[in-house]
Amino acid sequence: MKTGIKQNTSQLLMGVKDKTLPLALMLTCLFSLAIGLMPLNLAASQCKLSSQFNQLSQIEHQISLTELDNGLIVRQLNRPQQSTVAIASQFNVGSRNEIAGQTGYAHLFEHLLFKGSENAPNESYPQQMSAIGARFNASTHFDYTNYYVTVPAQALELSLFLEADRFIRPVLSETTVKNQQGAVLEEMATSIDNQPYLRPAMEYLLSQVAGSPYAHAIIGSKADVTSATAAELEQFHQRYYRPDAMQLSLVGKIEIDSTNTIKQYFADWQAPQHNLDEFSAVSVTPTATKTEIIDKRGPWPALLMAWHTVGRQHPDFEAVSLLQSHLFQNLKSALAANTLENPPQMLSYSIPLTMENHGVTNLVLVPRANTSLDELQNLVESLFSQVIENGLNDQALCSLKTVALNDINQQLSNSQTLAKYLSNTSKRDKFFPLTQPWRRTEAVTSADIQRVTQEYFIDKAVRVDLLPPWYIRWGKGLLEILPQGFSEKLERWAL
């Protein structure tokens, strides 16, 4: 049993052994340790990121890492000045693990883990958590499912017992399954089907990766969710909820011997004989495509643009992330700067999809009355052209990295956010979950930004025109050809 592994030189060089860690990854960790002991390179020093990086490094140095013999990975960070403890549990199972006919099972099972276990039947878990003043929730993603709770420090042992009980010994009845099927179907209707444009746009984007594990929605299909049985969901649990697919993180005031408490409740949990599912990068040949979605509920036209990029394990991931930030993601983005005066869009938002083995950059633009969707596309394409032609100067690149590093530090000041972040650590960052991802970001150059722009974005946009009923489209078309001042007056009146 491997316990108490701190992020420091002596213990790593003394020979931390991990039966699941390839030699290449161990060498990478040792190399990362070496550069971690060096000062930031010249570019970072000129960018004045040392103080922010030091904050990140100091937090990481205080994190203890334990791996139980059954493969469960545990990270702990004691913050004695606090009165609560955040617990985050992440399982390496999401919608990508689902087979045909069982879409939505990962999300449905997430619901069921709040509805009874061997020692906390029925509604006992939410009732006990509410009684002690805990905050708890969960979410399902393409690659993983996470569960998180913040409890008073004195309730840590009880909470670990309840977490272990529901993860290892859930109790599923046909009645409970039926009730949660109804809850999921209601969620599906409210968040997807009752929203204009959303369902067909989502299905069109998913069709771009047909044949891959990411080709269906996380929430699943109505037919599959409705037909799920307790027996099938129990099999789903036995296959995917296993200690070697779990990362557990504690952040906050840890007053008990938490390591031994975790061993007490989790160490006897044995992994099944079959191997974990393995996945490779999604193979997509990005090409420019265009389609229209007409929805009678649509109040106004909008432009959806998407670009297929890379997953978070890919060497280009950090460069793509910085490019997204530069173009769309903050108040000083290129889009904001180019539309500061009299912007052609009423609204813009971008929420990139980040998966383990694929990525999608997306942008939704809602046009002003006198702006066409074609004009908005031309605007976006001009932003990419500027990057190709000019790159990013040192100041702009430094600003992007500063924003990225500040965002990380700001997020990690919250114990629950930090616990979730640690439980989402990738294998390559196992020993350096905070500093190693940043090192990759810090190494991105302007040439890297230009290269990924050319490779993943130029002439590769998936364009979806989101169109309202004909009479709104007719009125919008008329406003586009009227004098600008008149169109703007009508727009203000309508709004």
UniProtKB/TrEMBL annotation:
Protein's recorded name: Insulinase family protein
Residue intervals of the Peptidase M16 C-terminal domain: 228-397
InterPro entries: Metalloenz_LuxS/M16, Pept_M16_N, Peptidase_M16, Peptidase_M16_C
Similarity annotation: Belongs to the peptidase M16 family.
Domain of life of the source: Bacteria
Bilayer-spanning residue ranges: 21-42
Keywords recorded for this protein, A-Z: Hydrolase, Membrane, Metalloprotease, Protease, Transmembrane, Transmembrane helix, Zinc
Domain annotation Peptidase M16 N-terminal: ranges: 78-195
